[in-house]
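hiii so um. not sure if this is the right channel but i have a protein structure encoded as C-alpha cells and i wanna go backwards to a sequence. like what aa goes where. can anyone help
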C-alpha cells in the first residue's frame, strides 16, 4: 500500500510536484519574465507545465463552481468568483491572476500559511539573508515580482549606490545575485577594481604604491576625473586639467618646488625682453595662474624710460627716427598697447605736408600731385585717418542730387588733369535732339563746358 502525502497523493508524486513548484517559484522570483514563458490561464485552470494538478478533494464543496460536464477535464468558461465578497480577502495585482489551486489545495487551510506572510506560500530564495520583510523590495501589484526602488533600498546599507555603481548589475558585486543570493560584499574599492588598478598607468598606481584608498582621488561618478586634493599647491586656472606627468616627471611624485620659475624657466627665457630686461623670475609679480597673456606689469620701478626696453618698437612705422619723434614714448603711448597712440599735433606749425609728403605724392584716388590738389591736407583730411577725406566741389554743387556719391573719374576721365571734365560721356544725347530743345538758348553748343555752364547743379531747367 502506498503512503500518501499531505496532498492526498502518493509521496513519490508529491515529491515530484513539490520540486516542480519550488523550481517554478524560484524561477519567478529570480526573473519575473519567466512566469510569462507559460501561456496565462484563467484562475480556475492549472498550468500543465507545473506537473500534475495538486489534490483538492476538500475544496471547494461545490465542484460545479469550476467543472462542467461529466468529466473532470472540462472547466467552465463562465467562471466567476468574488473573492473579496466571499472570503473577505481582496486579491490584488499578481494574486488576482493566480490560479486558485496555488493557494487552495489539500495541503491545509489557507489561513495557516497566510499567517506566516509571504514565505507561507513563496520560497525565500534569499535564504533569510535579506530579512523576512519581502514587501520592502517587492510588491504584489507588479506581476513580475521585480524589486522596486533598489537604489533607495541600497542606500540604507553601508554602501549607498551612487554614480557608476547605480547602473552596475547586482551580480558584479554579489556573485550569487542571479539566484537571489546577496551575500554581503566588500566595500573596499580595490576588491572589485583590481583590473582597473592594473591598467592605471598614467601615473602608474602600483609602482607608486597606490593600491588602496581609491576614494581619496576618485569619485564613483567618473574614474577619469580624479578628485585628488592637491593641498600644498591648489590646481587652479592653467594648472587645472594638466596630467600629473606634466609636473611630476618619471616616477617622482614627491613634493615639488612651488616657485613658478622652477617649472616655467623655458617660458621666461622665450618671452620678449625678459632676459635682456633683467625681469624678475617671480612670475607671479606680473602673471596669474589663469593665463600667461594679459600680464600686469608695474612700471613704477622703471625710471630710465620706456626706450630702454622699446628701442626696436620706436624704429617701426611710422618711422619715428626719420621724423625725429621724441623717445619719451609715454607722450603718445600707454602701457596697455602700442596701438591707438594719442599724438598731439599742437606742436607742429609748419603743416601736415612736412610729415606726409610721401602720402600726398602716392595718393591715386584721386592723384593729388598731377591734378594740382592743394597741399593743405587739413582742408579735406583729419588727423584720425586718410581714408575719411571729404572734398567740397568748387564753384558749383555738381555733387548734389543724382550726382552725389559718384567717383571723380566718372566726370574727369583724364587721370592727371581734373581740369578736364565730360558730361556727354554719361549723358549721351543725340546732337539733333538736343539742338531742338535748345532753340533760342544763348551761347548753346553741344559741348561739356556749355552743359556745365547752364546746369551747374546737374538739374534740368525748363
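sure thing!! here u go:
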Amino acid at each position: 500500500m502506498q503512503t500518501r502525502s499531505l496532498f492526498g497523493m502518493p509521496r513519490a508524486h508529491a515529491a515530484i510536484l513539490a520540486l516542480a513548484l519550488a523550481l517554478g517559484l524560484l524561477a519567478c522570483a529570480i526573473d519575473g519574465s519567466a512566469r510569462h514563458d507559460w501561456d496565462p490561464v484563467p484562475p480556475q485552470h492549472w498550468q500543465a507545465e507545473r506537473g500534475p494538478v495538486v489534490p483538492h478533494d476538500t475544496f471547494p464543496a461545490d465542484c460545479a463552481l469550476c467543472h462542467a460536464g461529466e468529466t473532470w477535464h472540462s472547466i467552465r468558461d463562465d467562471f466567476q468568483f468574488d473573492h473579496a465578497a466571499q472570503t473577505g480577502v481582496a486579491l490584488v495585482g499578481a494574486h488576482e491572476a493566480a490560479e486558485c489551486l496555488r493557494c487552495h489545495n489539500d495541503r491545509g487551510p489557507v489561513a495557516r500559511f497566510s499567517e506566516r506572510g509571504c514565505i507561507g506560500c513563496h520560497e525565500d530564495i534569499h535564504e533569510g539573508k535579506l530579512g523576512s520583510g519581502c514587501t520592502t523590495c517587492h510588491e504584489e501589484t507588479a506581476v513580475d515580482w521585480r524589486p522596486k526602488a533598489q537604489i533607495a533600498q541600497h542606500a540604507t546599507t553601508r554602501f549607498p549606490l551612487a554614480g557608476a555603481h547605480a547602473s552596475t548589475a547586482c551580480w558584479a558585486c554579489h556573485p550569487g545575485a542571479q539566484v537571489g543570493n546577496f551575500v554581503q560584499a566588500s566595500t573596499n574599492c580595490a576588491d572589485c577594481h583590481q583590473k582597473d588598478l592594473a591598467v592605471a598607468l598614467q601615473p602608474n598606481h602600483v609602482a607608486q604604491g597606490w593600491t588602496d584608498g581609491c576614494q581619496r582621488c576618485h569619485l564613483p561618478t567618473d574614474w577619469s576625473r580624479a578628485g585628488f586634493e592637491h593641498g600644498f599647491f591648489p590646481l587652479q586656472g592653467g594648472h587645472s586639467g594638466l596630467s600629473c606627468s606634466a609636473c611630476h616627471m618619471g616616477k617622482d611624485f614627491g613634493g615639488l618646488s612651488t616657485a613658478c620659475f622652477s617649472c616655467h624657466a623655458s617660458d621666461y627665457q622665450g618671452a620678449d625682453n625678459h632676459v635682456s630686461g633683467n625681469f624678475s623670475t617671480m612670475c607671479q609679480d606680473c602673471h596669474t595662474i589663469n593665463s600667461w597673456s594679459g600680464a600686469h606689469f608695474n612700471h613704477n620701478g622703471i625710471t630710465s624710460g620706456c626706450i630702454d626696453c622699446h628701442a626696436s618698437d620706436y624704429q617701426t612705422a611710422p618711422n619715428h627716427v626719420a621724423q625725429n619723434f621724441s623717445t619719451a614714448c609715454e607722450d603718445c603711448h600707454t602701457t596697455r598697447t602700442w596701438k591707438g597712440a594719442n599724438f598731439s599735433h599742437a606742436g607742429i606749425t609748419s603743416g601736415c605736408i612736412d610729415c606726409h609728403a610721401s602720402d600726398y605724392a602716392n595718393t591715386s584716388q584721386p592723384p593729388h600731385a598731377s591734378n594740382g590738389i592743394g597741399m593743405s591736407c587739413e582742408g579735406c583730411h583729419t588727423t584720425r585717418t586718410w581714408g575719411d577725406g571729404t572734398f567740397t566741389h568748387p564753384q558749383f554743387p555738381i555733387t548734389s542730387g543724382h550726382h552725389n556719391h559718384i567717383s571723380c573719374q566718372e566726370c574727369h576721365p583724364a587721370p592727371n588733369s581734373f581740369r578736364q571734365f565730360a558730361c556727354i560721356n554719361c549723358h549721351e544725347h543725340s546732337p539733333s535732339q538736343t539742338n531742338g530743345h535748345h532753340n533760342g538758348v544763348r551761347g548753346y553748343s553741344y559741348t561739356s563746358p556749355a552743359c556745365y555752364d547752364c546746369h551747374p547743379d546737374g538739374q534740368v531747367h525748363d
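oh and The first helix runs from residue 11 to 30.
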